[in-house]
Fold:
Amino acid sequence: MIFYEIGSPTLELTADDLKKGLYAALDKLGARHKVLAIPPDYTRLPSRAGELTEFAWQYYGEALTDVLPALGTHTPMTAPQISHMFGQLPASLIREHDWRHDVVTVGTVPAEFVKEVSGGAVDFPWPAQVNKLLLEGGFDLILSIGQVVPHEVVGMANYNKNIFVGTGGVEGINKSHFVGAAYGMERMMGHADTPVRRIFNYASDNFTARLPFVYVQTVVGLDKSDGKVKTRGIYIGDDLEVFSKAAALALQVNFDMLDQPLNKVVVYLDPTEFKSTWLGNKSIYRTRMAIADKGELIVLAPALKEFGEDKEIDRLIRKYGYFGTPATLKACDENEELRNNLSAAAHLIHGSSEGRFSVTYCPGKGPENLTKAEIESVGFAYGDIDAMTARYNPAQLKDGYNTLPDGEEIYYISNPALGLWAFKDRFNH
Structure:
């Protein structure tokens, strides 16, 4: 059921608009005595989920007892990040998800179903895992809050991904990521109905239907006319319809279909948001369908300090690198440690250009940043950030096509997390 909806590609929703919409939906739910909020973490700051979580706390007061950021495999939030994202919400309400130890398996999606929806790409059962707090907390409302946007693993982010990945466990996260990689990222990105989504929906229908989920879904995109990030929609409901409506708008707001492939793309990774290639490789995921054969991707990454946000995943990335699907699958066959961490394997596949175009990473030069040797060891080219920024200055570029003073043409993206770019002949929708 939809409790509230508003959205269009030209709408500009203010914080007050979001608050009024949320309150209108919560009014319809009636009184609640113990509420859990599951927003994303700091890596999804533009989603407006932080404000919405704060509004939920203002609405419910002491009845909102716990806030569980959907970390998945990400690094736990710091105190300044919590304060910045959630405003006046008491930090004492924040619970830290541990994907290795805090989960329970609520059911298993049969291997036959996984094989069927993946077109035979994989053939294994999938465990539906969630943080134990969801089951043991005694909640009469669980608010899952987040942004629907194109995503490399599931096609379109959010809805029950926020639950089964954001609060999920090792095996569930690993296997879901690998399903998407094995099926083919280009067949997933920008699609609401994908093998991974069908697996999540099976789990929702069969294993967690008793949990009192209500989904608060935003659609946020970049307005190229003024370079500002704007909220185009909010949809609140308790079933698949709320995701479907948000996904339809997100496809209009967050997807750039191009008439010609791009020869040179420059992507900027905001230092407050991107500190790892685990997240920063959105610059690759979201553009690879747009970049021409033998094209070039330049990634300006001033805060880049690690490959994986999880220490073990970081180690595996350093060891096996981004050398394409055949190399990664061979490494999986030959190395148990990679077979046992399929989300890392999937990430290595997603983060490679498959040799089709070059990827040049330009990290900062502080002692905390990744070095030239580290960048090159995983299969990327290294670029000097000072020289690259002098030539491709984010302060002077506009999102989209730019022609430099010497005539060079580039395509600039200020935040790869906000969209998906594809050459029309490579996207089959």
The longest helix spans residues 15-29. The longest strand covers residues 213-223.
